Structure formats: structure tokens, C-alpha cells
Amino acid sequence: MVVGVLHVECGLPGTQSIKDKRRIVRSLLDRLHHRFHVAAAEVDHQDTWRRAGLAVAYISTDARHADQVLARVVEEIDRHGELVLLDYSVEMR
Question: Is pTM, for the whole model, over 0.85?
């Protein structure tokens, strides 16, 4: 069993409040969960308007498959109109 963990740092330049940010982040996390069958959560910068630290986990029997799924998750986040992908890292356990 392989657990792939993706850590993502995002900027939210258009947000005006924590409520705005949470709406955007919750929508993205729900979409990632339904589309890619991953576990996803905001894990850092919860009280900051314009930043979000996200973690996404995927379990597979094959490290290559897990890496491919997480790469597609990164692409989805990067295409999101209200977020700016600042940095990310992937680790396999």
C-alpha cells in the first residue's frame, strides 16, 4: 500500500474576508474529493484571508498511479480561477 500526500500553498488574491476564502476553499476541496476520490483538507493558514495551505492524500497499491492522480490534482488546482498555486510538494509513504 502506498499513501501519496500532496502539500499545496495557494494564494487567494481576490478574497475580501475569511468567509470568502472558506467558500472558495470548501468548493475546491469538495470538487477534488468527488472528481479524484482523494481526502483533502485545509491544514495551514486557516485564519489568513489570502493564503491557504492544503493537504491532499491518495491511497493506492502503486506509487506511479498515486503520483499520476496527485499530478492531475495539481493541474486542477492550478486551473482554478480564484486561486493562485504558489508551491507544492508530493511525498510517497
Answer: yes
